[in-house]
Structures are given as structure tokens and as C-alpha cells.
Specification:
Blueprint (H helix, E strand, L loop, with lengths): L6 E2 L3 E3 L5 E3 L7 E2 L10 E4 L2 E4 L4 E2 L1 E6 L13 E6 L13 H4 L9 E2 L2 H10 L4 E4 L8 H13 L3 E6 L5 H8 L4 E5 L5 H8 L4 H13 L3 E8 L7 H14 L6 E5 L14 H13 L5 E4 L4 H4 L1 E2 L6 E6 L2 E5 L30 E3 L7
Parallel strand pairs: 9-11, 11-12, 12-13, 13-14, 14-15, 15-16
Antiparallel strand pairs: 1-6, 2-3, 3-4, 5-6, 7-10, 8-9, 8-20, 17-18, 18-19
Helix pairs in contact: 2-3, 7-8
Length: 362
């Protein structure tokens, strides 16, 4: 176990008026001594920015990789997932608000060094470690150090993120990441500003960076909220942008909203909305489109982009059929399936196993 001490942050500069500006994300928080940024976990201490959650987690759990969701990154494998607290967005519809909006640092009772996390993942046979539950951008230093420890043991790393990050930190952070799921929360700046307190363009910049300047495998998730970001016009514009700027092989997940946090009066997303969104995305030329938070085997299944044969048939997080040749191609037409695959699917299934990180390493 490591002591819960503040850790020097890497991204900041001193302003002429004596304040320090945090340069991690586009919020550009300008802080006096003792003040915290909008994320709550990055704070000015004397003449530096510190991370107050380094080595401290809200808990560890072993999940199926499809839960991140990542459907084209070693399907069926297990991933050791953890997060900390806080967030640099202020989503009124947050589905993990008890963690991401937490102001109680005492809830972060599960302390673990990067090396301890890597050892636990190895011991449990996890293919990867995921930085998730709250956005890993805000605990970048902890995530990057953990990624280094994981890579030394041959363990992959996954980031589940909103992609709201500045250029320098983006470059450093994603250089340590093997796969990512990026939330594209909507396709209007009005939605981002009113419902998340942020802006759309930095997220698009992250997606463009991942596609054109890295080897990170990434997939996109959009949570569809009735009446907010689910119109045919917005979905068409978003899918058209993805196809033109990222290509047709980037998997897109449409996920169902349920009433929560500051939007308890908005109804849950009907399954028909996700089916409609999937049809729009396919019509715009996206090859791999999925539905989430609803039971829809077709929306869970990976089809060949060329001959449309079912290649990976899922029922929720359970893989019922895995039809790939040794080189990751369709056995019917020979077309390559985009992503990263083993010759055989993993067999972790739909389990979710909370663990004690220290018991896992002793």
C-alpha cells in the first residue's frame, strides 16, 4: 500500500497575475493557492498543481471487455477496471455521477500503486487494465504510470474517456494507451455547452488525433437522450462526419439513457431509438454499429463489412459464436475484420467480479 499523498501534476504554467493555469484540459482553470480545478482533484499547492487522487481508487472490478464497450479489442477477454473520483465535465445526465461528481476523497479507500495494479491484473489473468468509471484524463499521471507498469508485464491498457484534453497532455496520455472508447456525447456545441459544460470541438480533435496520429484502437459511444441528441438530422450529420473523417471501420455504439443525476424527468431511451440510430449509421457507411443497454442480439453482433455474415454473435456480454480465420478475417469472403483479435475468443463471459486489490497480490 502507498500513502495517499498529493502527486505533482505535469501540465500547468504560472500566470503574470500570480495564479497558476492548469493546462491539462480545455477548461484552463486558473487557480490561487488552495483552490481546486473544475475536476476537483487537481489543486494548487504552493507553486504547483498537484493530483490529489494519485494511488487512490473508488474500487477495482474485473469486467468483460465488451462492457467498456470495446467489441473489436480481444473479444471475450477480461479487463481489470478502476477509477478514482471527479471529472472535468459536468454532464447533467451522468450515469456514474456518484463517482465522477464525488467531493468526498475519503471514499477513495482502495489504495494501490501502479505496480500493485499490474500485478493484480496479471494474477487474475486479465488481458488489459481499464481506466474508467470516471474520466482518466483527470488522473492522467496515475494512469500513465500504471500503463507503464502494465506494459512491463505484457498487459494492455484501455481508456474510457470523453476525450476532453489539451494537445500536449493528449499526446502523452494516448502514447501509453492500447485501446480507447471515446464518448461522443452529441454532435452540437449547444448540447455540449448546456448539458456538459464543455465544447464539442476538442472531442472531435481527440478523435482525429487518435485516427490519424496514433495506433490506438478506438471505438465511439453515444448515449442517446430522448429529445436532446437523437434526431435523424443530428445522427445523420454525426455519422457522416465519422465516415468522412475517421472512416467506416471505427465501431460506433449507441447506448440507452436512463433517468439519473440532474435529468430524472427525461424518459428512458426506447429500444426503437437505438435501432433507428443504428440504421442511420449503417446507411451513412459505418460498418460496425452496436446498440447498448438494451437486449438486441443483432445490435450486439459483429457482421462482416463486405459479405455481412455474422462473425461474432453476442448476447449481452456473452459470446455465443466466434467465426474468424487465424488471420482475423471472415471465413466466408476473406475480408479482414477491423480491430485486434486472438485466434479464439476469450471465455470470461458476462461476469463482473469486484476484487480487493491487495488480496489479489498476496
Amino acid at each position: 500500500m502507498i500513502a495517499a499523498t498529493n502527486y505533482p501534476g505535469r501540465y500547468w504554467h504560472l500566470l503574470d497575475d500570480g495564479r497558476i493555469q492548469c493546462d491539462l484540459c480545455p477548461r484552463d482553470c486558473k487557480l490561487h493557492v488552495g483552490q481546486r480545478g473544475a475536476c476537483f482533484v487537481r489543486m494548487r499547492e504552493d507553486d504547483q498543481i498537484v493530483l490529489t487522487t494519485y494511488g487512490r481508487s473508488s474500487g477495482f472490478c474485473i469486467d468483460p471487455i465488451e462492457k467498456k464497450p470495446l467489441n473489436h479489442f480481444y473479444p471475450g477477454s477480461s479487463v481489470l477496471s478502476f477509477g478514482t473520483a471527479g471529472c472535468n465535465l459536468a454532464c447533467k445526465f451522468c450515469q456514474n455521477w456518484d463517482i465522477s461528481k464525488s467531493r468526498d476523497m475519503d471514499r477513495l479507500m482502495d489504495q494501490a500503486s501502479p505496480e500493485t495494479i499490474a500485478i493484480a491484473a496479471e494474477k487474475h489473468g486479465c488481458k488489459s487494465v481499464a481506466f474508467t468509471y470516471n474520466d482518466p484524463v483527470i488522473f492522467a499521471e496515475y494512469a500513465m504510470d500504471t500503463a507503464d507498469a502494465c506494459h512491463q508485464r505484457g498487459i494492455k491498457t484501455v481508456a474510457v474517456t470523453a476525450g476532453y484534453i489539451h494537445e500536449e497532455a493528449r499526446r502523452d496520455f494516448f502514447s501509453k494507451i492500447d485501446a480507447a472508447n471515446v464518448d461522443l456525447k452529441a454532435f452540437t456545441d449547444e448540447f455540449y455547452y448546456k448539458l456538459t459544460g464543455s465544447h464539442l470541438q476538442p472531442v472531435l480533435d481527440t478523435l482525429l488525433y487518435l485516427k490519424h496520429e496514433t495506433d490506438v484502437w478506438f471505438e465511439i459511444t453515444t448515449l442517446l437522450i430522448p429529445g436532446k441528441n437523437d434526431s435523424d438530422e443530428e445522427l445523420t450529420a454525426m455519422c457522416k462526419w465519422i465516415k468522412e473523417n475517421l472512416g467506416g471501420d471505427v465501431p460506433l455504439h449507441f447506448s440507452a439513457f436512463h433517468p439519473d443525476h440532474k435529468m430524472p424527468d427525461i424518459p428512458a431511451t426506447p429500444p426503437s431509438t437505438l435501432v433507428r440510430a443504428r440504421e442511420i449509421a449503417i446507411k451513412q457507411g459505418l460498418n460496425y454499429v452496436y446498440t447498448g443497454n438494451v437486449h438486441n442480439i443483432e445490435g450486439d453482433t459483429t457482421f462482416c463489412a463486405d459479405c455481412h455474415s455474422p462473425l461474432i454473435v453476442r448476447d449481452w456480454y456473452q459470446i455465443n459464436q466466434y467465426r474468424l480465420s487465424e488471420d482475423g478475417c471472415c471465413p466466408d469472403c476473406g475480408s479482414a475484420l477491423a480491430g485486434m483479435f486472438d485466434e479464439e475468443a476469450g471465455n470470461f463471459g458476462a461476469r463482473r467480479i469486484p476484487i480487493s486489490i491487495h488480496k489479489a497480490t498476496t
